[in-house]
Amino acid sequence: MVDFSRVQKELQECNRDINVSGISVNPKSDNLTNLIGTIPGPIGTPYEGGTFKIDINLPDGYPFEPPKMKFATKVWHPNISSQSGAICLDILKDQWSPALTLKTALLSIQALLSAPEPDDPQDAVVAQQYLKDYQTFASTARYWTESFAKTSSLGVEEKVQKLVEMGFPEGLVRSTLEVVGGDENMALEKLCSG
Amino acid sequence: MVYDSIANASIPTAVSNPKEIGKKKRVNRTAKLKQCKLDARREQWLSQVKNKGFKEENKGDVRAKMPASDMHASNEGDRSLVKLVINPGGEENDGLMNHYSDWESPSNSPTSHTSSLGSNRSVANFTGSSSRSSSSSSGGCYSESMTEEDDGDDGCLDDWEAIADALAADDIKNNHNPNPDSTTASSELEPVETIKEDQEDSHAQVNHRAWRPDDAYRPQGLPNLLKQNSFPMNSDRHYKNVGFAFAPSTCPICCEDLDLTDTSFLPCPCGYRLCLFCHKRILEDNGRCPGCRKLYEQHAEQGIAASKLGRSHSMIPRR
C-alpha cells in the first residue's frame, strides 16, 4: 500500500517552493498513485526554455521502492528513450533510497538533462550522435525542445488566434483547446480529424 | 516496572545452550521495545480516557441526587465488577481491557460520592482485581487514583504520597541507581521541588524524590498535575522524559510522529533517524540506511538488525 500521508506531504512541500525550483508535482487522478511532474529545461542546455512533463507512477512499496518515472514530453537525450521516454537513472533503480522524495528525484532528472551520460545510454542512437557529432545532437535536442516542450509558451489567446486564422470557428477552437489541455498541436490534430 | 515483568516472563523458559541465550536476548530486546511502545500508547490513551471520565463524573454528581439513578449507577458498578472477574487474563491486551472498564465504571457510577455501602465495596474490589490481572503495577495505581479522588478531600493525600514513594523506590531499584539524591539529579529537580513546597509544604520535605510532573509513570490522579505541567520547563528534559506526549519530530520516511522509543533509536552511525516500523521494513528489504546507503551494521545494537544482516550481506555485494 502506498503511504499516502507521505505523498500528500511531499506534494504540499514540493508545490510550496515552486517559484524557486520550478518543479511541480500534481496528481493525475484521484488516487495519488498517478502523478505528473514538470521540470523546466536547465539553462545553458539545448533544453532551455522547455517545460518537460514526467509521468510518475507510485508502486505499492513507495517510498521503500522507487517511483516509476518516464518522460511524457518527447526529449532528445542520450539517457532518455526518444521513443518511450524511459529514463536511465540509477536513483530510479537500484540506488533509490526512501530518504529521497519525488522532488529530489525530479531534481536529479533535471540534473541529468544538463549532464548526459553517453557511456551508459538509454537511447543508443542519440548517444552515438552525442559522441560523434555533438553539434547535430545539440541542434536536434533544441529542435525537439522547441517542438514538444514549449507548447505552453504561447498564451491561450495567441493559440486561439493562430487556429482561427487557419479557418476554424473560434468557439470550437476554444473548447478543443480546453479538452486537450492547451496543447495547440493536439488541438489542431483534433480539429482536423473531427 | 515494565522491564521487570518482561524479565520475569523470560525466566521460566529454561535455556541450556549459549546460542539460545543470545537468541533469547535479542528476542527480549525487541520485546522490550515493543513493550515500551505499547506502554507509551497506553499511558497516552489512559490520560485521554481520564479527561473524558472527569467530565462524565461531573454529570454523575448531578444525577446522584435522584435515588432512582443512584440505584442504577450502583448496579452498573456491580456489573463492571462482574466483567472484571470474568476476564482475569494475564495477557497485555486483557490488561488493557481491564483498565478500560476500570475507567468506565467510576464515570458511570458516582458511587463513592453517594457512599452507598455496596458500591464502595465494588470499587475496592475491582481495583484489586485489576492489579492482580494486569502485569504492570502502574495500571493498578491508575485505577486507585481515580477512586481515591472521588472522595474529593485532601485526607487521602498521605496515602498518595506513600504510594508515590513506594513506586519511586521501585523505579530507583529498576534503574540500578544507588544514589537517588546525587547532585545532578537534585539540581535538576530543584524547580519542581520548590513548586511542590509552595503547594503542599508539609509533604514536600519528607518526599524528596516524589513524582516529577513530567514523569511518564506519574499517577494522573495526583493533585495539582495540571498546575505543575503548565509551568515552563527545560525543553530538553521534557523531550527526554515524555517523548510520546511531545514528539520532537516526525519520521522522514513515513511522516508519522516519532515516539519515545523512536527518538532514542539510532540505528546507523551516520545519525539518520527513522521510526522502528520503517527500520524493520528496510531490514526486510535491502537493509541499507536511507541516509548513507550503507548496510546497517552489527553495531546497530539491534537484535533484528543482527539477525537480518546475514542474509542481506549475501544478497547485496558491497562495493
From TrEMBL, chain A:
The keyword Nucleotide-binding applies. One of its GO terms (biological process) is protein polyubiquitination. Residues 2-150 form the UBC core domain. It is an enzyme of class 2 (transferase). SUPFAM superfamilies: UBA-like (SSF46934), UBC-like (SSF54495). The active site is at 88 (glycyl thioester intermediate). CDD domains: UBA_II_E2_UBC27_like (cd14312), UBCc_UBE2K (cd23800). Its EC number is 2.3.2.23. Gene3D superfamilies: DNA helicase RuvA subunit, C-terminal domain (1.10.8.10), Ubiquitin Conjugating Enzyme (3.10.110.10). GO terms for molecular function: ATP binding; ubiquitin conjugating enzyme activity. Residues 155-194 form the UBA domain. One of its GO terms (cellular component) is nucleus. Keywords: ATP-binding, Nucleotide-binding, Transferase, Ubl conjugation pathway. Belongs to the ubiquitin-conjugating enzyme family. This is E2 ubiquitin-conjugating enzyme.
From TrEMBL, chain B:
It comes from the Eukaryota. GO terms for biological process: protein ubiquitination. Residues 175-187 have a biased composition (Polar residues). Residues 51-157, 169-222 are annotated as: Disordered. Residues 146-157 have a biased composition (Acidic residues). The keyword Zinc-finger applies. Residues 53-64, 193-203 have a biased composition (Basic and acidic residues). Gene3D superfamilies: Zinc/RING finger domain, C3HC4 (zinc finger). It holds the Pfam family zf-RING_4. Residues 251-293 form the RING-type domain. Keywords: Metal-binding, Zinc, Zinc-finger. GO terms for cellular component: CCR4-NOT complex. GO terms for molecular function: ubiquitin-protein transferase activity; zinc ion binding. Residues 105-120, 128-145 have a biased composition (Low complexity). InterPro entries: Mot2, NOT4_mRING-HC-C4C4, Znf_RING, Znf_RING/FYVE/PHD. PANTHER family: CCR4-NOT TRANSCRIPTION COMPLEX RELATED, CCR4-NOT TRANSCRIPTION COMPLEX SUBUNIT 4. This is RING-type domain-containing protein.
